[in-house]
Amino acid sequence: MSFHSINYCLALLLGCLSVCVVVSQTQYKRLEYKYSFKGPYIVLKDNSVPFWDVGGNAIASDDQIRLAPSLKARKGYMWSKNAVNFDWWEVEMSMRVSGSGRVGGDGLGFWYTTERMQEGDAFGGPTTWHGLGVFFDSFDNDGKMNNPYVYVILNDGDKVFDHDADGNVQQLGGCLRDYRNKPFPIKVKVEYYRNVLTVLMSNGLTADEVPELCLRAENVYLPRNAYFGLSAATGGLADDHDVLSFVTNSVHDQSQERSQQISQMERQKLESQFRDYNDKLEVQRQEYLKQHPEKAQQQQTLQQQQAGTAGQFENPQDRALRQIFDGQQFIHLAIQQLHKRIDEIIGRQERTLSAVSSITSGQVTVGQPVAAISQQQQPPQQQAPIQRYEVDSIIRTQQELQTALRDVKNFVADIQGKVIQVQQTQKMQPQQPASYQQAGQPNLSELRDVLNSVRQDTMAILSRPQAMPSCPAQGGITTLWFGVFIVVQTVIFVGYNVFKSSGESKSKKFY
Ligand SMILES: *[C@@H]1O[C@H](CO)[C@@H](O)[C@H](O)[C@H]1NC(C)=O
Ligand SMILES: [Ca+2]
Ligand SMILES: [Ca+2]
């Protein structure tokens, strides 16, 4: 059943992008396509996502949005273009966070806020905001060994997201879930219905999981007319943060009668609009016929002919044919008129062109080295009487030139802007390794986390010799050996990092 309803919604979403009504017992849900996206064709030809703005380092492609790529210190985001115009909603999204390391960073944010497209410290989204943030925090910045963690922070603009503490005193609640590197995308469902906020998510272990409860909070008051957003950020550690789909349903609790009433009202409104339009059309037709008496005659004779021949015996098929014929004739007329206009325009263009070429040729003779000759030639030209229409045409030509020049100016300004942008991005790119180096020592918390995981490995291995009772004499030696090995490995690791950073700073001097 769920397969069918998914298929149904998918077909509608892709097909006519119309409104799909899914009825459950008491809630009425409606797909809101202006706040949704879903593969396989997320982007248009110009790489934009319909109804969404994508910014920062986010990359939109046909089947997913990569909010942040697995490169150091990147931030990306996307926001719905339209503010939400319904009270209650549920969003189902499917996402993938993957990286080659045992630990990754920094995480992904789901937003419902009154601000949009602001880059800040909360996983690429704003640092402080009005509304809701649901965060998938991969990296353990506060060292409490409690990440990846999923949590909600509500904000009235008074909280400044505390990245170093994983927002731990700011949370409304959350759950410990490892969502990184799972075989299937994680399904996340965020519901906001009658001031109850619910966050559910799947484990990504099988394809057809139902999301399980992560958090439920009552008495949540979110602002109206806010925007949906997604963001992600990487730091010293970097994962790929991908969102494959984002499907928003508005949730209504009105009874079906009321919705029918509304649709009836809408129908009446549309019908009256249609009548108005028809009346206007008729008035315009009469006016047109008044202005063009020869057409009116044509039409009259046409109508008379029709009345005389087929009018009385016209059957529906003939009528349809005649209507098609009329329509085609109308199109024909319109095309003829267009043709006339185009001819006029071309004529004017040619006149302008010749005027321009005469002006430029005049300039060329002035600019010639044999100025004496042209000076001799000029007086007779000036003496010739100038006609009024010539002056007019020159003025017109000048005006046209002016607009053309303005266009060119805009164009140049546009290009300049783009060049500046390119320069800036070029400047930024060498800065990124530099800013990484500004931290001097490689990111300390990252090092700590890696050491933590090494320690965990050691513990796991040390507790294993019990499983090998056959060689008890060697047990002590193995442990000793292992300790030595770990120390050597750690020294090599730290040494390598120091060597690498000093090597990078040396090579930096060559720039
Ligand atoms: C170190 O890396 C982690 C993980 O990417 C990040 O959260 C943290 O902000 C980084 N610290 C510094 C000082 O850049
Ligand atoms: Ca964190
Ligand atoms: Ca933590």
Overall body shape:
extended
Task: Please name the CATH architecture of the domain at 28-256.
Answer: Sandwich
**Share of residues in strands:** 15-25%
Main sheet summary: 10 strands, antiparallel
| Mean model confidence by pLDDT | 80
Low-confidence stretches: 9-24, 364-382, 430-440, 467-476
What CATH calls the topology of the domain at 28-256 is Jelly Rolls
Order of helices and strands: HEEEEEEEEEEEEEEEEEHHHHHHH
How many angstroms separate the termini? 63 Å
Ligands, ions, cofactors: 2-acetamido-2-deoxy-beta-D-glucopyranose, calcium ion
Signal peptide: 1-24
Keywords: Disulfide bond, Lectin, Membrane, Signal, Transmembrane, Transmembrane helix
Protein name: Protein ERGIC-53
Main location: endoplasmic reticulum
Q: Would you write up a description of this structure?
A:
The protein has eight helices and 17 strands. It has a domain at 28-256: Jelly Rolls (Sandwich). It has 511 residues and is an alpha+beta fold. Helices cover 46% and strands 20% of the residues. Strands 1, 2, 3, 5, 6, 8, 13, 14, 15 and 17 form a ten-stranded antiparallel β-sheet that branches. A seven-stranded antiparallel β-sheet has the order 4-7-16-9-10-11-12, with no helix packed on it. 2-acetamido-2-deoxy-beta-D-glucopyranose binds at residues 105-106, 139, 141, 235-237, 439, 443, 445-446. One calcium ion (CA) binds next to loops.
